[in-house]
Design a protein that fits this description.
Length: 324
């Protein structure tokens, strides 16, 4: 084991004492055994600490830490703190409710080439009882970045094993992001990657648990701080799409941001209305100044009226920035 590189597995957790045991048992069952597993607690109030005491006592490769105040609350703060503590040549972030298959680490490590900075695998989507319900898909007809932001490349934190040296040159997870944490991180990274820096494995190497409370259900509830984060991610990806000069992507993020803008109007969320309108119009003005003028006039009118108009929203959503 001494001549094998150390892999740091970093698991942020919050109130998952009923699930994280399965995750840790799957780490123990790895065919590749030279690892350290760093669990960072983001303020659990259940039995997580008691459970972790048992694992740390039985196997010193496990570590259990509380996220310090120097890192902001949330999964991103916990992920970043785990990286600060890690020592491995390779780094694998993993979720506290998912399960590694026994060859998860071995297969990914073996796949690295000299130029690779990261390896991406797939996973099996499972229900709460670990029954298979689907596979995370990958579309190799588009770029890694484009496929990811369109969710045609279904890549989660679990999918990616990193070389530590690569991560040292990056800003890691943005702790200010409250929603779309993985999306912000991977969008930023994938946009800059060359094809030689990564390899894709067409193998399902982990179980990705789906819970009853789905993202679509959560999205029905309007939380201003969440929308601020989602809007930020979309604006950054619109900016990248403009750099790529990709009309399809530009149109996609324009439409998404119109949706966010009108939801903010509907909920009288003035800060998000102001930020979204200002940032969006600044970016698309060089593409279509007439559209920008219409947006500014009508959105300001709707704010005074304190209501949103479905027909006006649909007009802007279906507005083509580029003509065929």
């Amino acid at each position: 084991m001494q001549d094998q590189p150390l892999v740091s597995i970093i698991i942020p957790t919050f109130n998952r004492a009923h699930l994280i045991g399965e995750t840790l048992d799957s780490v123990l069952a790895q065919t590749y055994q030279n690892w350290e597993c760093i669990v960072v607690d983001d303020g659990s109030t259940d039995g997580t600490e008691t459970l972790m005491t048992d694992y740390v006592t039985k196997d010193t490769r496990f570590q259990y830490h509380q996220r310090p105040d120097s890192h902001l609350p949330g999964g991103n703060g916990a992920r970043n703190y785990g990286f600060d503590l890690s020592k491995g040549e390779y780094v694998q972030w993993f979720d506290d409710d998912d399960v590694m298959l026994p060859v998860f680490l071995e297969v990914k490590l073996t796949a690295f080439t000299e130029n690779n900075d990261l390896i991406i695998c797939s996973g099996l989507m499972v229900d709460r009882d670990l029954n298979s319900i689907g596979i995370l898909s990958y579309d190799d007809t588009v770029s890694l970045f484009k496929g990811f932001v369109l969710w045609r490349n279904q890549i989660t934190t679990n999918c990616v094993l990193f070389k530590r040296q690569f991560l040292l040159n990056l800003n890691l997870f943005n702790p200010q992001i409250l929603r779309g944490q993985e999306s912000e991180f991977f969008s930023r990274i994938f946009f800059e990657l060359s094809k030689t820096q990564y390899s894709i494995l067409r193998r399902e190497l982990f179980l990705y648990r789906q819970h009853d409370t789905t993202k679509s259900t959560k999205n029905e509830i309007y939380v201003p701080n969440f929308k601020t984060s989602e809007t930020y991610v979309a604006l950054e990806n619109l900016k990248r799409s403009i750099v790529l000069n990709d009309p399809g992507l530009i149109q996609y993020f324009y439409r998404l941001l119109i949706h966010f803008l009108f939801r903010a109007l509907e909920h009288q969320d003035k800060p998000n209305v102001k930020n979204t309108l200002s940032s969006l119009t600044k970016m698309i003005k060089p593409l279509n100044w007439w559209l920008v003028l219409q947006l500014e006039v009508l959105v300001n009118f709707l704010q005074v009226q304190k209501r949103s108009y479905h027909k006006i929203e649909m007009y802007f959503k279906t507005y083509k920035l580029f003509h065929d």
